Amino acid sequence: MSRIFTALAVLASLIFMPAMAVAQQDPENTLYLDLKDGRVVIELRPDLAPNHVARVKELTRDGFYDGIVFHRVIDGFMAQTGDPTGTGRGGSDKPDVNAEFSSAPFERGTLGMARSSSPNSANSQFFIMFADGDWLNGQYTVFGKVVEGMDLVDNITKGEPPANPDKIIKMQVAADAG
What domains are there in the chain, each with its CATH number? Predict the structure, then answer.
């Protein structure tokens, strides 16, 4: 009888595997975002936005995000980063990425690509949702989700811009982390 329960437990763990375990099994589509308070683990979603995921991974591997500030952090809404000028007007020297809108909802912990009024203007800036934001659904590209460390994201200094902004200490693709 105990063998049956053991087999059922193993089967259940395979069927109901948490998102974090899935992310850890795919280091190529997992980001480590190191903040002043610790490490945030992000599951990338190439199934939803393959071009945006490829861009973020390319910039991450180039070290582009290391040291960049969170220039727009609205309590109860989101924290935005990815602009090397810290003004919200800058980006990488790469061409913009066309929109990859999906039906994935903007929920707490979701990562979306920032853009101008043009849907096809995403470049390097992204935001992490502090709370659900259904008005963004289908209007911005969802490319990932925080699976560990959302409490660290909650601690990012608020402001538009913050007087003393927090920054990304280091961002890495998990497959490259030592």
Answer: 28-174 (2.40.100.10)
